[in-house]
Amino acid sequence: MTKPLDVARIRRDFPILQRTVRDDRPLVYLDSAATSQKPFQVIDAESDYYRSCNAAVHRGAHQLAEEATDAYEGARAKIAGFVHGRPEDLVFTKNATESLNLVAYAFSNGAAKAQHGDDAIDPRFVIGPGDSIVVTQMEHHANLVPWQEVCAKTGATLRWIGVDDDGRLDLRDLSTIIDESTKVVSVVHQSNLLGTINPVSELMAHARAVGALGIVDACQSIPHMPVDVNELGADLVAWSGHKMLGPTGIGMLWGRPEVLEAMPPFITGGSMIETVFMDHSTYAAPPKRFEAGTPMVAQAVGVAAAVDYLDALGMDAVEAHEHVLTGYALEQLRNVPGVRIIGPQDDHARGSAVSFVVDGLHPHDVGQFLDDHGVAVRVGHHCAWPTCRRFDVPATTRLSTYIYNDTSDIDVAVDGIRAAQKFFGV
Amino acid sequence: MTKPLDVARIRRDFPILQRTVRDDRPLVYLDSAATSQKPFQVIDAESDYYRSCNAAVHRGAHQLAEEATDAYEGARAKIAGFVHGRPEDLVFTKNATESLNLVAYAFSNGAAKAQHGDDAIDPRFVIGPGDSIVVTQMEHHANLVPWQEVCAKTGATLRWIGVDDDGRLDLRDLSTIIDESTKVVSVVHQSNLLGTINPVSELMAHARAVGALGIVDACQSIPHMPVDVNELGADLVAWSGHKMLGPTGIGMLWGRPEVLEAMPPFITGGSMIETVFMDHSTYAAPPKRFEAGTPMVAQAVGVAAAVDYLDALGMDAVEAHEHVLTGYALEQLRNVPGVRIIGPQDDHARGSAVSFVVDGLHPHDVGQFLDDHGVAVRVGHHCAWPTCRRFDVPATTRLSTYIYNDTSDIDVAVDGIRAAQKFFGV
Amino acid sequence: MNVESLYQEIILDHYKNPRGKHPLAEAEGESYQVNPTCGDEVTVQVARDRDGHLHVGYEGQGCSISQASASVMAEMVEGMDVSTADAVRHAFVELMHSKGAVEPDEEVLGDGVAFVGVAKYPARIKCALLPWMALQDAQVKAGIGTEDQGEAR
Amino acid sequence: MNVESLYQEIILDHYKNPRGKHPLAEAEGESYQVNPTCGDEVTVQVARDRDGHLHVGYEGQGCSISQASASVMAEMVEGMDVSTADAVRHAFVELMHSKGAVEPDEEVLGDGVAFVGVAKYPARIKCALLPWMALQDAQVKAGIGTEDQGEAR
Ligand SMILES: Cc1ncc(COP(=O)(O)O)c(C=O)c1O
Ligand SMILES: Cc1ncc(COP(=O)(O)O)c(C=O)c1O
Predict the structure, then answer these.
(1) Which of B90, B394, B418, D98 has the most other CB atoms within 10 Å of its CB?
(2) Rounded to whole angstroms, how far apart are CA atoms B177 and B158?
């Protein structure tokens, strides 16, 4: 049995939710798919780190350095545990975008080094003409552009799984898309624009079957539902801290140990080396191999505090709460004439990002009216421009909820939409 | 006339300096070259951002997004101003290591794309066999390993300027090192191990003369002395926030506009694009082109607060203060029999990082004794392993000061060294 | 400050009944501009006749602000001599960057004065400027005017 | 807790007068290990004689802790049968990870008990373990022992 969320109590932990916007309207924050707000527990964890034990980690023989290292590695263990992974298999980056680039660069770097005579590169990372990379038509730019770049640098070909009218992946021709030429299958777990939850373990099984590496962009799933990285069947899983109550400036990459071990480094420099000579270097084992330079220590501590916060609520309860809100939002929006939902129409296998367009109104103008009602939403292509094109819309307006929202927030938003319709006479 | 620093007053702004370590000894922090401590003004600026206006920047039509964007871009303007640059020419990264990699990858990405038929790549970034890259023998790994990687991926050759016994660059054979084959000259402004301040504008002039791009690693200079990026004569300048009173997780890269404009992107994804289609994308102008994904907003706000703090002291005064401390440290260390300073022996053209070895004692053991006296120093190769090899030492112990240190801190350190000598009977 | 100050009557009118929204028969220069965050697009074409007068046409899609701005622009500068058109554009750009501190001059800006409220909504300034940036860029490409390249960024 | 608890007499003695610090005539396996943050290095060589006894030699440079640890290790396991040597290594590794909570058994660990203070200084644990990791790795390479590969990390 999961205990339902006590939204009123939760809201008291978020200082920003006490403020007003535009002519003293209470803030209704429905933009958590872009970035979540932070409870004081997270904010304080970061400042306490700076106040009490800030130092360079993994270096120096002094007490502060020991405490800072403990804080950093303790955070790693906690965050890894949150997704049922081992600390050794968790890499810190600056955001999910870097995590995904780190993986993409393993292929372009691998190919370039192999071409220049390095025969120690694992053949899985040597990509070139004739090889294919598979993504979907609902990827965030962060899981699309890096692969386009790999293709531009290596001659590999990008393929994608299409999206049907209901915003679901079209899996009919899967075996012609993922085939023996495929070296990478990289898919979003939950679309940030459509809200669709994809059958990633099925897709990962297809990847495995052809010997391709399987990658999951879990930016919109790990903050919102219980995720066990082992169950996804993926080789690598990327997500961000700032969407799960954590600070800006930190992302995560979990990898299967054997895959991380085989991956060439991305950003190079201090702390990721084993030995350095003027003319060559050797590299440390993962996760250090992928963490060059002074890391995001305070930010890791902040994400660990966010994990504590979410664990205390229970991710089952978080998921259940959002499921209710999603159903409610879909229902309320359907009741507004002229509103069209872009993405799955019902709440089955669907997360809480709900995109829509309003006949006769541009999404930007809808967003502006919502802002005038104190409602913060996102408008635009949500960094998934090809997905907008698929639905023949220039942009959408998107509501997205989290643990601090309740149905009344959605009511305020729907009022705002109606007001916009009235004002523009549509 | 610069006003001398009031160290006692400054120390009150740094919460961590009020704490004790190891059996209640007052903390003597002499490890600022690794990372600096943070005044409450910086810590609070970050938390205030989260408490009051956290949101996704450059997106969303709501008031929070406007305020967050203002905070982020305002920070950019302030930090750029600190080094006499324009905001449009300042890129935020996660640390200086990423900044330097961003530049290095412009070359390997440029080469790979050109090889695969992209003829829009600026020829300056198309590197290959026969081309050379020049660094020095006193680089931090962050400005060495990325260039080794470029060579491994493109067939270019790495060359370096040697270091003499006094820890100065050996500039005698410069014209055989920097020649017509040279496409990159990348040098450290102030060595984090030796303390040497290098004649970078002279080196940059050599780079310009042969048409090479000139890069300066200013990690140890910008926090400690007035730096005007225009006067360095460099094309690109990299540094970190956490060494200049700022938070972890943010770095800077300043570039000449014409050079940034010509550079291919590094990390790709959201926010750095102009248009995205499934099969290709076009990229935004700098600085956005180099800032993929959700940026380090709170961290930028923190560095801006650090700039305010340093500006209020005056960088001339900071430099003068450290110069006194450096001279004092050199003198006190010279008075201890058996201590050998690694790096320039006098305080001319020299920063406050002072490395030394003690006859018969391993640097790690020296560090441990200092720790026992409450003194935090760094031991090891300081991410400049080849520099240690040059001086035939496995590692050094390093004292490094900042605005919150005074001569009494150095006295405590020297006492610790003597105690170690006594204990080990050397 | 509220949303009505942003969406003045004139803006709504231009949004619903755009003027000058058509391709130009013999364009000498053309510029496509896009707002990468929201996907608003506009293509502006320009030509100059024997008497030195400017002719413009545009196509585009986007929010009310960007589309109304394009319509206002097309209606105003159509047939103007080049230097007067440049002056109008200058005044419009200045207004947008004024944060609401500048009192717009109706003599110069005509219907453009209706955009005074936009300057208070930073996220929308880019929308309003988009067609004017395209105009400037198209003129530069056509070699018509303008010394002030790049200033509308 | 203070620095004297770290640097016990036995450690200082092994540091100043290292035992077993020499190459091994007929090494069957060798392992080089380095601590990437401080540059401490050690190379351990191993061989097994007809009676199943282990022989070790080492070279290295580094801090007192890593070098004394190598000396203690070389002295202790030299001539031991393989399974006893493995047991000593296990006990040493366990002690290092104990955060000071384990009472070391002098029967098993001999001079190794002197390292009990090291467990309280996280930054130094790696120093103390370095030669033992090299021993294990060298044994694995020589095919001498040990089922517990990787455990000393
Ligand atoms: C000279 C120098 N360059 C580069 C770096 C790397 O900086 P960061 O670790 O912040 O990336 C440092 C700091 O460690 C440094 O001192
Ligand atoms: C599905 C998805 N993938 C990737 C990203 C990129 O994350 P970040 O901006 O934190 O790098 C986001 C968030 O914007 C997202 O929603």
Answers:
(1) B90
(2) 10
